[in-house]
Amino acid sequence: MAGDYDLVVVANRLPVDRVEEADGTTSWRRSPGGLVTALEPVMQREDGAWIGWAGTHGEPPEPFDAVGVRCVPVGLSADEVEDYYEGFSNGTLWPLYHDVIVAPTYHRRWWEAYVRVNERFAQAAAEQAAEGATVWVQDYQLQLVPRMLRRRRPDLRIGFFNHIPFPPFEIFAQLPWRGAILDGLLGADLVGFQRPADASNFLRACRRAIALPARQSLVRLPDEGGRQVRAASFPISIDAAALDEMARREDIQERAREIRRDLGDPQYVLLGVDRLDYTKGILHRLKAFEELLSDGRIQVGEAALVQVATPSRERVEQYVQLRQDVEVTVGRINGTYAEIGKTPVQYLHHSYGREEMAALFLAADVMLVTSLRDGMNLVAKEYVASRYDERGALVLSEFTGAADELGQAIMVNPHDIDGLKDAVVRALHMSPREAARRMRAMRRRVREHDVQRWAATFLEALERPGAENTEIDLTSAGSEVAP
Ligand code: GDG
């Protein structure tokens, strides 16, 4: 029952979004995500299919061709969206894998939906993949797919990449279905993570939870004739050249100047860009900014903070609460410190086009990335890639994957509010010379390790599982510019 495709990507979402045109017809538009950018060329070259949810519940559309790949929609019922996606993926796994910043919820009904939906994705992949094809499964929503797929199609090469952190065993151990999740992942030939620390957490979980021999980067499966699964880090990146090119455009630069003018031409513009998510440390950032205003270390009118908070997971309880907390805090800061024509915090609960994002990056003197835990954080890399002028300073949480690579950022522990305040002041007052030196080093790193290289490195490691140097290449990726 093999299908036609030599490379199959399996992800929660398709690489396209459905759009309603003015005349009532619907069409598919490429999603903004970096994964599409990374995989598009190789998918076109290799004759690829992409399996994913189309984003609305009910009967899935028929398979179709878009952005140069075969798109195969997987259907989810309204209950499954609630239990598999909002429930188990975003109410159980997401908080558990992000250091239990909020308490994960464990519901057996959610788990059952997760198993059922993972089976459906695995079945779709099994039907599309050609004999001996490569299948690349993405992210925490689909951790059971590798095993389910191997059972159906032992001829395939199966890779898995986890975009979010993999937690230390002491936290992972809470999960009632921890053994099943590990077994699911071990259906793959290669399990990729953002940071070396995530890979070692996974290897340790295999030893502790299911007593498997795991040494260096390999897990041995005695029940499968000694088959070996490799776990290693492959830090994801961005399309750095495209962003650099966009930022150099005159219209984008003009828009950046306009943004500063519309903010009242403050001396300093600070910027945060995040999905509205409790992992991103938005409240910590606001607290630091508020205290800097109350201490008089920055003056209203002198500095403005622009916070883009893209709407996200709006039906999940903790996200509703977070939105309220952020909006109360912004309201309090502005109510206390604003003057006519001078608003300290511009809070924007919208999503913007890529060009507006590039203009915002160019307009910002200081970029604030204060995540409490973040697999990578692409925004940090995007800021760096846009600053072709070598200006601007990046304040970066040490709890991001990006911190492994962007050692020239001003590193912060976002829980340490005094430290965060000092870091912001240091960023504001950094000499242009020092800022340029740091930015140059970070730009080099992001340019040389872009998302195309990420995809190629992963797929190459998947094709050559025994390659001697794989582990060294991959796990030391961050060492060049680290302090
Ligand atoms: C997960 C992991 C890991 C945001 N708002 C708008 C917009 N964005 C874009 C950003 C960036 C992306 O969305 C967000 O990526 P992040 O990496 O910052 O964070 P998550 O969404 O949490 O992503 C993360 C990532 O997966 C990849 O593996 O790095 O750690 O949590 O590209 O620019 N883009 C546009 N308008 C917006 O309003 N166009």
UniProtKB/TrEMBL annotation:
Under Gene Ontology molecular function, one entry of this record is: trehalose-phosphatase activity
Please provide one cellular component term from the Gene Ontology annotations of this protein: cytosol
One GO biological process this protein is involved in is: trehalose biosynthetic process
Q: Which InterPro entries match?
A: Glyco_trans_20
Q: Name one Pfam family in it.
A: Glyco_transf_20
Give the family, as the similarity comment puts it. Belongs to the glycosyltransferase 20 family.
The name on file for this protein is Trehalose 6-phosphate synthase
The species is Kineococcus xinjiangensis
Starting at the broadest rank, the lineage of the source organism is: Bacteria, Bacillati, Actinomycetota, Actinomycetes, Kineosporiales
